[in-house]
Amino acid sequence: MDQTPAIRKPPGANTLRERLTVPVLAFGGILMAVMQTVVVPLLPDLPRLTGASAGTVSWMVTATLLSGAVLTPVLGRAGDMYGKRRVLMAALGLMTAGSVLCALTSDIAVLIAARTLSGAAAAVVPLSISILRDELPPERRGSAVALMSSTVGIGAALGLPLAAVIVQYANWHTMFWVTSALGAAGVTSVWWAVRESPVREPGRFDVPGTIGLATGLVCLLLGVSQGGQWGWGSDRVVGLFAAALVVLVLWSWQQLRAERPLVDLRLAGRPRVGLSHVAALLAGFAFYANTLVTAQLVQAPEATGYGLGLSIVATGLCLLPSGIVMLLLSPVSARISAARGPRITLALGASVIAAGYAVRIADSRELWMIIAGATVVAIGTTLAYSALPTLILRAVPPEQTASANGVNVLMRTIGQAGSSAAVAAVLVHHTRPVGGAPVPTLHGYLLAFAMAGAVALLAAAAALCIPGDSAEDAEDATNGPDRARDRTRGARDQAMEGA
Prior knowledge:
Number of strands: 2
Largest sheet: 2 strands, antiparallel
Strand order of the largest sheet: 1-2
């Protein structure tokens, strides 16, 4: 019998609200991913629409990346302390407010600020996974967590064609009015269907740790995202990386001495948690290259000899099968994790991602082969992304679930930022003029696929290095979360005493 304190009703009690908890949370995750991608079709036209330079317009993407990276672990920790449902509604509310601002203005400064607000939605997935752990019985938890993890890919696959259709056939502000309405529906649905979890870790919020992490991450990710534009050897980029190193080292020192740290580094240092974070970073890198390269490849001019010259709408439709596959396969990934363990699922998923890139290298000229390769990568991503939160759930105490999953999502975000920079660097160095403009060569695209496939294999290796469940851990995962929590607390307290 499950001992999770958050399951407060007797078996059989299943109201409409309880049945809708998982769909409502999944809707929030899909909405978050949609909000991250809807601006992409607008980027080529925004300089004309706003009167700003292309470099300034790119900050509509960069600002969302930076705020999402900073706020994900911060809001995760706030959820553990003050209530996950409350913080989840706040994250969705900030996202909706940012969308409304985008709908009301054409001023680039306000648009960038609005997209910064929307970055708070990045915390939706880890907060939702933590709520699922608290609210669902063990037999439903695995499939629900797998679905929640897959919403990142599902939303990305749906967001691009949706935005492209709206931008092509309506005023661009209409797109943000649509997302504003969806955001309001998300907030209302969570308020109505999701109960507040009683699992908390009370204490004083770590403000110095928050400031330190925010500063370090902004310096790191700003350098990564702008390195190609500013120059990797420029004083600004080198200075940002140096500042990130110094700040994060000082932040780690502060976290190890804080009574209630923002991120429990001792817990993150345990192999089951730390290697899961490493695998998340590598999987994020490998996954993101698929979307980046596919979109550019199919839109390349036919004069290149390999490009298909597709429109933005057609490009989005090419990625749609990937989203459908991720939706359909999330229950399968949960069953594999239940039967073989999440680390095996993660290793299998990363290996399938590598196989998908092998398909891309074999043939990237025919549309059906491009879609097939991208879909194989999506299959692997579904397996990998569904396994990562399950690994974290089994390795951390319940009162740190949201913050630990927030760090895991942060590592995926850093991996995606690194992938964007690496793919851009490869393509920039492999171009040839077509119609008077430099266009990446097919060889450059194939190198990007090979790089992403190699990183996927590293993710599989990291997954296999994660310690497997002991008999005691397996019992805790199904029958005694409280006992796992108490034992983890004891180990953490002993480590603090030793320090």
